[in-house]
Amino acid sequence: MDTLPARPATDPGYNFGYLDEQTKRMIRRALLKAVAIPGYQVPFGSREMPLPYGWGTGGIQITASIIGPADTLKVIDQGADDTTNAVSIRRFFARVAGVATTERTAVATIIQTRHRIPERPLSAGQILVYQVPQPEPLRQLEPREAEARKMHALADYGLMHVKLYEDIARFGRIATSYNYPVMVNGRYLMAPSPIPAFDNPKMHRMAALQLFGAGREKRIYAVPPHTEVQSLDFDDHPFKVWRADRCCDLCGAPDSYLDEVVTDDKGGRMFVCSDTDHCAERRGAGHRGPLAGHALQEIAEGKS
Amino acid sequence: MRANTPALAPGFADPVLDSQACFRALLDAMARPGTIHPIPAALHPPAPLGAAMAAAALTLLDLDTPFWLDDAAATPDALGWLRFHAGSPVVREPARAAFALIADPARALLPLDRFPLGEDAYPDRSATLIVQVAALEARGGFTLRGPGVEGSARVSVSGLPDGFAAAWDANRALFPRGIDLVLCAGSALACLPRTTALEG
User: Fold this and answer.
1) Most CB contacts within 10 A, which of A166, A234, B60, B165?
2) What's the domain count of chain B?
3) What is the rounded distance in angstroms from the CA atom of residue A148 to the CA atom of residue A207?
Protein backbone atom coordinates (compact mmCIF):
# COMPACT_ATOMS: atom_id res chain seq x y z
CA MET A 1 0.00 0.00 0.00
CA ASP A 2 1.45 3.34 -0.98
CA THR A 3 -0.43 5.18 1.80
CA LEU A 4 1.70 3.67 4.56
CA PRO A 5 4.20 5.99 6.19
CA ALA A 6 7.85 5.23 5.58
CA ARG A 7 9.10 2.76 8.18
CA PRO A 8 12.59 2.81 9.56
CA ALA A 9 15.00 0.20 8.31
CA THR A 10 14.91 -2.67 10.79
CA ASP A 11 15.92 -6.30 10.88
CA PRO A 12 13.18 -7.92 8.78
CA GLY A 13 13.30 -11.05 10.93
CA TYR A 14 11.66 -9.28 13.86
CA ASN A 15 8.55 -7.25 14.55
CA PHE A 16 9.20 -3.54 15.13
CA GLY A 17 10.67 -3.32 18.64
CA TYR A 18 11.26 -7.11 18.86
CA LEU A 19 8.13 -7.93 20.91
CA ASP A 20 4.97 -9.20 19.21
CA GLU A 21 1.97 -6.87 19.22
CA GLN A 22 -0.07 -8.80 21.76
CA THR A 23 2.78 -8.72 24.26
CA LYS A 24 3.18 -4.98 23.70
CA ARG A 25 -0.54 -4.43 24.34
CA MET A 26 -0.33 -6.44 27.58
CA ILE A 27 2.66 -4.36 28.73
CA ARG A 28 0.96 -1.14 27.62
CA ARG A 29 -2.14 -1.95 29.67
CA ALA A 30 0.10 -2.66 32.68
CA LEU A 31 1.90 0.65 32.12
CA LEU A 32 -1.35 2.63 32.14
CA LYS A 33 -2.43 0.99 35.41
CA ALA A 34 1.06 1.58 36.87
CA VAL A 35 0.81 5.29 36.05
CA ALA A 36 -2.71 5.46 37.51
CA ILE A 37 -1.53 3.87 40.80
CA PRO A 38 1.85 5.56 41.46
CA GLY A 39 4.33 3.25 43.16
CA TYR A 40 2.16 0.11 42.98
CA GLN A 41 3.83 -2.91 41.35
CA VAL A 42 1.63 -4.19 38.52
CA PRO A 43 2.22 -7.88 37.71
CA PHE A 44 2.83 -8.53 34.01
CA GLY A 45 3.61 -11.48 31.76
CA SER A 46 7.32 -10.90 31.37
CA ARG A 47 8.72 -12.54 28.24
CA GLU A 48 12.02 -14.21 27.63
CA MET A 49 14.32 -11.71 26.00
CA PRO A 50 17.50 -12.34 24.02
CA LEU A 51 19.66 -11.50 27.04
CA PRO A 52 19.86 -12.97 30.54
CA TYR A 53 17.82 -11.85 33.54
CA GLY A 54 19.72 -9.19 35.41
CA TRP A 55 20.81 -7.47 32.20
CA GLY A 56 17.75 -5.29 31.94
CA THR A 57 15.01 -7.55 30.58
CA GLY A 58 12.32 -5.54 32.39
CA GLY A 59 13.59 -2.20 31.15
CA ILE A 60 13.97 -3.52 27.61
CA GLN A 61 10.39 -4.82 27.54
CA ILE A 62 9.08 -1.41 28.63
CA THR A 63 11.27 0.42 26.12
CA ALA A 64 10.17 -1.99 23.35
CA SER A 65 6.52 -1.31 24.18
CA ILE A 66 6.74 2.47 24.13
CA ILE A 67 9.41 3.20 21.53
CA GLY A 68 8.52 4.58 18.10
CA PRO A 69 10.44 5.67 15.00
CA ALA A 70 10.47 9.30 16.16
CA ASP A 71 12.26 8.47 19.43
CA THR A 72 15.91 8.98 20.28
CA LEU A 73 17.19 6.39 22.74
CA LYS A 74 19.92 6.76 25.33
CA VAL A 75 20.98 3.84 27.52
CA ILE A 76 23.19 4.16 30.57
CA ASP A 77 24.68 1.63 32.93
CA GLN A 78 25.82 3.15 36.23
CA GLY A 79 25.83 6.52 34.50
CA ALA A 80 28.07 5.41 31.65
CA ASP A 81 27.03 5.23 27.99
CA ASP A 82 30.02 3.13 26.96
CA THR A 83 29.64 -0.01 29.08
CA THR A 84 28.80 -3.40 27.58
CA ASN A 85 25.21 -3.46 28.79
CA ALA A 86 24.44 0.06 27.53
CA VAL A 87 26.12 -0.45 24.16
CA SER A 88 24.36 -3.80 23.61
CA ILE A 89 20.90 -2.44 24.42
CA ARG A 90 21.40 0.61 22.19
CA ARG A 91 22.50 -1.64 19.34
CA PHE A 92 19.57 -3.97 19.98
CA PHE A 93 17.03 -1.16 19.50
CA ALA A 94 18.89 0.32 16.55
CA ARG A 95 18.55 -3.11 14.94
CA VAL A 96 14.97 -4.08 15.84
CA ALA A 97 13.36 -0.62 15.88
CA GLY A 98 15.67 1.38 13.63
CA VAL A 99 15.63 4.27 16.09
CA ALA A 100 18.26 6.96 16.49
CA THR A 101 20.48 6.47 19.53
CA THR A 102 22.48 9.03 21.40
CA GLU A 103 24.79 9.45 24.35
CA ARG A 104 23.54 12.97 25.05
CA THR A 105 20.97 13.28 27.82
CA ALA A 106 19.63 16.55 26.44
CA VAL A 107 18.46 15.15 23.09
CA ALA A 108 17.16 11.73 24.21
CA THR A 109 13.39 11.14 24.37
CA ILE A 110 13.69 7.77 26.11
CA ILE A 111 16.50 7.07 28.58
CA GLN A 112 16.85 3.50 29.77
CA THR A 113 18.96 3.34 32.87
CA ARG A 114 20.63 0.85 35.11
CA HIS A 115 21.24 2.27 38.57
CA ARG A 116 21.64 6.02 37.93
CA ILE A 117 19.59 9.12 37.15
CA PRO A 118 21.42 11.54 34.82
CA GLU A 119 22.84 14.68 36.45
CA ARG A 120 21.12 16.96 33.95
CA PRO A 121 17.50 17.62 35.06
CA LEU A 122 15.09 15.76 32.78
CA SER A 123 12.31 17.54 30.94
CA ALA A 124 8.64 16.87 30.27
CA GLY A 125 9.32 15.39 26.83
CA GLN A 126 11.49 12.61 28.22
CA ILE A 127 10.72 9.19 29.71
CA LEU A 128 13.12 7.51 32.12
CA VAL A 129 12.98 3.68 32.07
CA TYR A 130 14.65 1.95 35.02
CA GLN A 131 15.99 -1.60 34.98
CA VAL A 132 14.96 -3.11 38.31
CA PRO A 133 16.45 -6.30 39.77
CA GLN A 134 14.18 -6.48 42.86
CA PRO A 135 10.98 -4.39 42.74
CA GLU A 136 9.74 -5.37 46.19
CA PRO A 137 11.21 -3.04 48.85
CA LEU A 138 9.97 -5.36 51.61
CA ARG A 139 11.53 -8.53 50.18
CA GLN A 140 14.55 -8.58 52.51
CA LEU A 141 12.23 -8.05 55.48
CA GLU A 142 9.29 -10.24 54.43
CA PRO A 143 10.19 -12.99 51.96
CA ARG A 144 6.58 -14.18 51.54
CA GLU A 145 5.00 -12.53 48.51
CA ALA A 146 1.45 -12.89 49.88
CA GLU A 147 2.43 -11.19 53.15
CA ALA A 148 4.33 -8.37 51.43
CA ARG A 149 1.33 -7.77 49.17
CA LYS A 150 -0.94 -7.58 52.24
CA MET A 151 1.43 -5.06 53.82
CA HIS A 152 1.20 -2.88 50.70
CA ALA A 153 -2.61 -3.22 50.69
CA LEU A 154 -2.74 -2.03 54.30
CA ALA A 155 0.08 0.52 53.86
CA ASP A 156 1.73 -1.28 56.79
CA TYR A 157 5.33 -0.14 56.45
CA GLY A 158 6.40 -0.19 60.10
CA LEU A 159 8.89 -2.97 59.37
CA MET A 160 10.89 -0.74 57.03
CA HIS A 161 11.07 1.97 59.69
CA VAL A 162 12.33 -0.65 62.16
CA LYS A 163 15.04 -1.62 59.67
CA LEU A 164 16.16 2.01 59.31
CA TYR A 165 16.02 2.40 63.09
CA GLU A 166 18.25 -0.65 63.50
CA ASP A 167 20.73 1.05 61.18
CA ILE A 168 20.75 4.06 63.49
CA ALA A 169 21.06 1.91 66.62
CA ARG A 170 24.00 0.01 65.15
CA PHE A 171 25.86 2.62 63.09
CA GLY A 172 24.55 5.93 64.41
CA ARG A 173 23.07 6.80 61.02
CA ILE A 174 20.91 5.29 58.29
CA ALA A 175 23.54 3.20 56.53
CA THR A 176 21.50 2.44 53.40
CA SER A 177 23.39 4.05 50.54
CA TYR A 178 21.60 2.68 47.48
CA ASN A 179 18.11 1.34 46.70
CA TYR A 180 17.01 3.66 49.51
CA PRO A 181 13.25 3.16 50.07
CA VAL A 182 10.86 5.94 49.10
CA MET A 183 7.18 6.73 49.63
CA VAL A 184 5.36 7.64 46.43
CA ASN A 185 2.50 10.12 46.65
CA GLY A 186 2.30 9.39 50.39
CA ARG A 187 0.85 5.91 49.81
CA TYR A 188 3.12 3.21 48.36
CA LEU A 189 6.54 2.19 49.60
CA MET A 190 8.70 1.79 46.50
CA ALA A 191 12.16 0.48 45.65
CA PRO A 192 13.81 3.13 43.48
CA SER A 193 16.01 0.35 41.99
CA PRO A 194 19.67 0.33 43.07
CA ILE A 195 20.31 3.99 42.32
CA PRO A 196 22.55 5.70 44.89
CA ALA A 197 20.61 7.56 47.61
CA PHE A 198 22.34 10.59 46.04
CA ASP A 199 19.83 10.32 43.17
CA ASN A 200 16.70 9.95 45.32
CA PRO A 201 15.92 13.70 45.53
CA LYS A 202 15.88 13.85 41.71
CA MET A 203 12.84 11.56 41.65
CA HIS A 204 10.79 14.02 43.69
CA ARG A 205 8.51 16.08 41.41
CA MET A 206 10.59 15.12 38.36
CA ALA A 207 9.18 16.64 35.15
CA ALA A 208 9.74 13.39 33.23
CA LEU A 209 7.65 10.23 33.49
CA GLN A 210 9.50 7.44 35.35
CA LEU A 211 8.79 3.80 34.44
CA PHE A 212 10.26 0.79 36.23
CA GLY A 213 10.55 -2.72 34.79
CA ALA A 214 11.59 -5.90 36.59
CA GLY A 215 11.76 -8.74 34.05
CA ARG A 216 12.65 -11.68 36.27
CA GLU A 217 10.25 -10.58 39.01
CA LYS A 218 7.54 -9.72 36.42
CA ARG A 219 6.56 -6.32 37.82
CA ILE A 220 6.06 -2.88 36.29
CA TYR A 221 5.62 0.31 38.29
CA ALA A 222 5.70 4.01 37.62
CA VAL A 223 5.97 7.50 39.03
CA PRO A 224 4.02 10.14 37.05
CA PRO A 225 5.58 13.58 36.53
CA HIS A 226 5.44 16.15 39.36
CA THR A 227 4.71 13.43 41.94
CA GLU A 228 5.80 13.43 45.58
CA VAL A 229 8.65 10.97 46.18
CA GLN A 230 9.92 11.10 49.76
CA SER A 231 12.88 9.12 51.06
CA LEU A 232 11.96 7.46 54.36
CA ASP A 233 13.60 9.03 57.42
CA PHE A 234 13.02 10.17 60.99
CA ASP A 235 12.51 13.70 62.38
CA ASP A 236 15.79 13.44 64.32
CA HIS A 237 17.62 11.54 61.56
CA PRO A 238 16.59 13.32 58.36
CA PHE A 239 17.44 11.79 54.97
CA LYS A 240 20.93 12.84 53.87
CA VAL A 241 22.64 12.19 50.57
CA TRP A 242 26.20 10.99 50.59
CA ARG A 243 28.87 11.66 47.99
CA ALA A 244 32.66 11.50 47.98
CA ASP A 245 33.97 14.78 49.41
CA ARG A 246 35.87 15.58 46.21
CA CYS A 247 35.39 17.16 42.84
CA CYS A 248 35.61 15.24 39.57
CA ASP A 249 39.30 14.86 38.68
CA LEU A 250 38.59 15.26 34.97
CA CYS A 251 35.94 18.01 34.75
CA GLY A 252 36.11 19.54 38.23
CA ALA A 253 32.37 19.13 38.92
CA PRO A 254 31.89 19.73 42.64
CA ASP A 255 28.34 18.39 42.84
CA SER A 256 28.11 15.27 40.65
CA TYR A 257 28.08 11.65 41.82
CA LEU A 258 31.63 10.27 41.66
CA ASP A 259 33.14 6.89 40.89
CA GLU A 260 36.45 5.98 42.49
CA VAL A 261 38.89 4.55 39.94
CA VAL A 262 42.09 2.75 40.94
CA THR A 263 44.77 3.85 38.49
CA ASP A 264 47.83 1.78 39.43
CA ASP A 265 49.11 -0.77 41.96
CA LYS A 266 50.77 1.88 44.16
CA GLY A 267 47.62 3.25 45.76
CA GLY A 268 46.91 5.74 43.00
CA ARG A 269 43.26 6.59 42.51
CA MET A 270 41.09 9.22 40.98
CA PHE A 271 37.47 10.30 41.28
CA VAL A 272 35.48 10.86 38.11
CA CYS A 273 31.84 11.68 37.32
CA SER A 274 29.74 8.53 37.13
CA ASP A 275 27.59 10.30 34.48
CA THR A 276 29.92 10.17 31.46
CA ASP A 277 27.77 12.49 29.32
CA HIS A 278 27.69 15.12 32.08
CA CYS A 279 31.47 14.92 32.44
CA ALA A 280 32.13 15.12 28.69
CA GLU A 281 29.76 18.05 28.35
CA ARG A 282 31.55 19.93 31.13
CA ARG A 283 34.97 19.19 29.64
CA GLY A 284 33.69 20.35 26.29
CA ALA A 285 32.63 23.61 27.91
CA GLY A 286 36.20 24.11 29.13
CA HIS A 287 35.96 22.87 32.73
CA ARG A 288 39.15 21.23 33.99
CA GLY A 289 39.65 19.02 37.03
CA PRO A 290 42.87 18.47 39.00
CA LEU A 291 43.91 15.48 36.83
CA ALA A 292 42.65 16.80 33.47
CA GLY A 293 44.60 15.24 30.62
CA HIS A 294 45.14 11.99 32.54
CA ALA A 295 45.50 8.86 30.41
CA LEU A 296 42.05 7.75 31.58
CA GLN A 297 40.50 10.81 29.97
CA GLU A 298 42.09 9.94 26.64
CA ILE A 299 40.56 6.48 26.89
CA ALA A 300 37.19 8.03 27.74
CA GLU A 301 37.44 10.25 24.70
CA GLY A 302 38.49 7.39 22.46
CA LYS A 303 41.99 8.71 21.77
CA SER A 304 43.83 5.60 22.78
CA MET B 1 -17.17 -10.74 -0.94
CA ARG B 2 -20.89 -11.06 -1.61
CA ALA B 3 -22.50 -7.97 -3.06
CA ASN B 4 -24.86 -7.49 -0.12
CA THR B 5 -22.19 -7.76 2.58
CA PRO B 6 -21.60 -4.31 4.08
CA ALA B 7 -18.01 -3.18 3.70
CA LEU B 8 -16.05 -3.32 6.95
CA ALA B 9 -14.32 -0.04 7.71
CA PRO B 10 -10.55 -0.46 7.99
CA GLY B 11 -8.69 -0.27 11.30
CA PHE B 12 -5.22 1.24 11.71
CA ALA B 13 -3.42 1.67 8.37
CA ASP B 14 -0.25 0.45 10.08
CA PRO B 15 -1.30 -1.63 13.10
CA VAL B 16 2.21 -1.61 14.58
CA LEU B 17 3.26 2.03 14.32
CA ASP B 18 -0.24 3.54 14.63
CA SER B 19 -0.96 1.68 17.86
CA GLN B 20 2.48 2.67 19.15
CA ALA B 21 1.81 6.36 18.42
CA CYS B 22 -1.68 6.16 19.94
CA PHE B 23 -0.32 4.43 23.01
CA ARG B 24 2.23 7.21 23.56
CA ALA B 25 -0.64 9.72 23.40
CA LEU B 26 -2.55 7.62 25.94
CA LEU B 27 0.50 7.20 28.20
CA ASP B 28 1.20 10.93 28.11
CA ALA B 29 -2.47 11.68 28.77
CA MET B 30 -2.58 9.27 31.75
CA ALA B 31 0.71 10.62 33.12
CA ARG B 32 -0.49 14.23 32.78
CA PRO B 33 -4.17 14.18 33.73
CA GLY B 34 -6.36 16.65 31.89
CA THR B 35 -3.93 17.37 29.05
CA ILE B 36 -5.62 16.96 25.67
CA HIS B 37 -3.88 14.88 23.01
CA PRO B 38 -4.85 14.55 19.35
CA ILE B 39 -4.86 10.97 18.06
CA PRO B 40 -1.82 10.59 15.79
CA ALA B 41 -3.52 8.20 13.35
CA ALA B 42 -6.22 8.51 10.71
CA LEU B 43 -9.15 6.29 11.62
CA HIS B 44 -12.72 6.26 10.27
CA PRO B 45 -14.67 3.89 12.50
CA PRO B 46 -18.39 3.29 12.13
CA ALA B 47 -20.75 5.53 14.13
CA PRO B 48 -21.12 6.11 16.99
CA LEU B 49 -17.43 5.43 17.62
CA GLY B 50 -15.33 8.57 17.37
CA ALA B 51 -11.76 8.40 16.07
CA ALA B 52 -10.18 8.79 19.53
CA MET B 53 -12.43 6.21 21.18
CA ALA B 54 -11.77 3.75 18.36
CA ALA B 55 -8.02 4.39 18.49
CA ALA B 56 -7.93 3.83 22.26
CA ALA B 57 -9.90 0.61 21.81
CA LEU B 58 -7.65 -0.76 19.05
CA THR B 59 -4.54 0.20 21.03
CA LEU B 60 -5.57 -1.51 24.26
CA LEU B 61 -8.09 -4.25 23.49
CA ASP B 62 -7.35 -7.79 22.36
CA LEU B 63 -8.48 -11.31 23.12
CA ASP B 64 -7.35 -10.98 26.75
CA THR B 65 -9.65 -8.04 27.54
CA PRO B 66 -13.39 -8.62 28.01
CA PHE B 67 -15.19 -5.37 27.32
CA TRP B 68 -18.64 -3.91 27.84
CA LEU B 69 -20.47 -1.39 25.67
CA ASP B 70 -23.35 0.85 26.60
CA ASP B 71 -26.52 0.67 24.50
CA ALA B 72 -25.52 3.73 22.47
CA ALA B 73 -22.15 2.20 21.48
CA ALA B 74 -23.48 -1.29 20.82
CA THR B 75 -24.65 -0.78 17.25
CA PRO B 76 -24.15 -3.79 14.96
CA ASP B 77 -21.61 -1.86 12.88
CA ALA B 78 -19.55 -0.76 15.89
CA LEU B 79 -19.71 -4.20 17.46
CA GLY B 80 -18.69 -5.89 14.22
CA TRP B 81 -15.84 -3.45 13.70
CA LEU B 82 -14.48 -3.93 17.25
CA ARG B 83 -14.86 -7.70 17.10
CA PHE B 84 -13.03 -7.91 13.81
CA HIS B 85 -10.16 -5.52 14.53
CA ALA B 86 -9.64 -6.14 18.26
CA GLY B 87 -11.05 -9.65 18.67
CA SER B 88 -12.11 -9.03 22.26
CA PRO B 89 -14.92 -10.89 23.98
CA VAL B 90 -18.00 -8.74 24.71
CA VAL B 91 -19.55 -9.17 28.16
CA ARG B 92 -23.07 -8.26 29.24
CA GLU B 93 -22.26 -7.57 32.90
CA PRO B 94 -20.21 -4.43 33.60
CA ALA B 95 -18.72 -6.22 36.64
CA ARG B 96 -16.80 -8.60 34.34
CA ALA B 97 -15.36 -5.97 32.02
CA ALA B 98 -11.70 -4.97 31.87
CA PHE B 99 -12.67 -2.09 29.58
CA ALA B 100 -15.95 -0.34 28.90
CA LEU B 101 -16.82 1.75 25.87
CA ILE B 102 -19.44 4.34 26.73
CA ALA B 103 -20.86 6.47 23.93
CA ASP B 104 -23.65 8.09 25.95
CA PRO B 105 -22.10 9.02 29.30
CA ALA B 106 -25.11 11.10 30.37
CA ARG B 107 -27.06 7.89 30.56
CA ALA B 108 -24.57 5.07 31.04
CA LEU B 109 -21.48 6.33 32.90
CA LEU B 110 -22.87 6.24 36.43
CA PRO B 111 -22.82 4.52 38.81
CA LEU B 112 -19.08 3.90 38.51
CA ASP B 113 -19.01 1.15 41.10
CA ARG B 114 -20.82 -1.34 38.89
CA PHE B 115 -17.49 -1.80 37.09
CA PRO B 116 -14.61 -3.75 38.69
CA LEU B 117 -12.84 -1.46 41.16
CA GLY B 118 -9.89 -3.74 41.84
CA GLU B 119 -8.90 -5.21 45.18
CA ASP B 120 -6.80 -3.67 47.93
CA ALA B 121 -4.05 -6.19 47.17
CA TYR B 122 -4.53 -5.95 43.37
CA PRO B 123 -5.82 -2.44 42.59
CA ASP B 124 -4.73 -2.89 38.96
CA ARG B 125 -7.60 -5.37 38.44
CA SER B 126 -9.98 -2.49 37.86
CA ALA B 127 -11.83 -1.35 34.75
CA THR B 128 -10.69 1.38 32.41
CA LEU B 129 -13.63 3.31 30.96
CA ILE B 130 -13.27 4.77 27.48
CA VAL B 131 -15.91 7.47 27.39
CA GLN B 132 -17.02 9.56 24.46
CA VAL B 133 -17.89 13.11 25.53
CA ALA B 134 -19.22 16.05 23.50
CA ALA B 135 -16.15 18.25 23.88
CA LEU B 136 -12.86 18.66 25.74
CA GLU B 137 -11.31 22.07 26.34
CA ALA B 138 -8.15 23.00 28.20
CA ARG B 139 -9.79 25.84 30.15
CA GLY B 140 -12.73 26.46 32.45
CA GLY B 141 -14.59 23.52 33.91
CA PHE B 142 -12.74 21.38 36.43
CA THR B 143 -9.60 22.28 38.33
CA LEU B 144 -7.36 19.21 38.52
CA ARG B 145 -4.84 18.36 41.23
CA GLY B 146 -2.81 15.25 41.93
CA PRO B 147 0.11 13.19 40.60
CA GLY B 148 1.05 14.24 37.08
CA VAL B 149 -0.31 17.75 37.54
CA GLU B 150 2.13 20.56 38.25
CA GLY B 151 0.22 22.68 40.76
CA SER B 152 -3.18 22.66 39.12
CA ALA B 153 -4.58 22.27 35.61
CA ARG B 154 -7.95 23.00 34.03
CA VAL B 155 -10.08 21.03 31.67
CA SER B 156 -13.72 21.34 30.76
CA VAL B 157 -15.61 18.23 29.72
CA SER B 158 -19.04 18.60 28.13
CA GLY B 159 -21.48 15.75 28.19
CA LEU B 160 -20.82 14.25 31.61
CA PRO B 161 -23.86 13.32 33.71
CA ASP B 162 -25.11 15.33 36.70
CA GLY B 163 -23.55 13.94 39.82
CA PHE B 164 -20.29 13.01 38.08
CA ALA B 165 -18.16 15.15 40.40
CA ALA B 166 -19.59 13.47 43.50
CA ALA B 167 -19.19 10.02 41.94
CA TRP B 168 -15.58 10.86 41.04
CA ASP B 169 -14.86 11.99 44.61
CA ALA B 170 -16.22 8.67 45.85
CA ASN B 171 -14.05 6.82 43.31
CA ARG B 172 -10.96 8.74 44.41
CA ALA B 173 -11.69 8.00 48.05
CA LEU B 174 -11.33 4.28 47.26
CA PHE B 175 -7.64 4.71 46.37
CA PRO B 176 -5.69 2.55 45.62
CA ARG B 177 -8.85 0.91 44.22
CA GLY B 178 -10.90 2.73 41.62
CA ILE B 179 -11.57 3.04 37.93
CA ASP B 180 -9.64 5.16 35.44
CA LEU B 181 -11.20 7.23 32.67
CA VAL B 182 -10.14 7.89 29.09
CA LEU B 183 -12.25 10.80 27.84
CA CYS B 184 -12.55 11.01 24.06
CA ALA B 185 -13.97 13.84 22.01
CA GLY B 186 -13.76 13.45 18.24
CA SER B 187 -10.12 12.74 17.51
CA ALA B 188 -8.70 14.00 20.83
CA LEU B 189 -8.46 12.39 24.23
CA ALA B 190 -7.63 13.18 27.85
CA CYS B 191 -7.34 10.89 30.87
CA LEU B 192 -8.48 11.01 34.47
CA PRO B 193 -6.61 8.43 36.57
CA ARG B 194 -8.09 7.54 39.95
CA THR B 195 -5.58 9.81 41.73
CA THR B 196 -6.82 13.07 40.17
CA ALA B 197 -8.87 15.41 42.37
CA LEU B 198 -11.52 17.48 40.59
CA GLU B 199 -12.83 20.81 41.87
CA GLY B 200 -15.51 23.04 40.40
Assistant:
1) B60
2) 1
3) 30
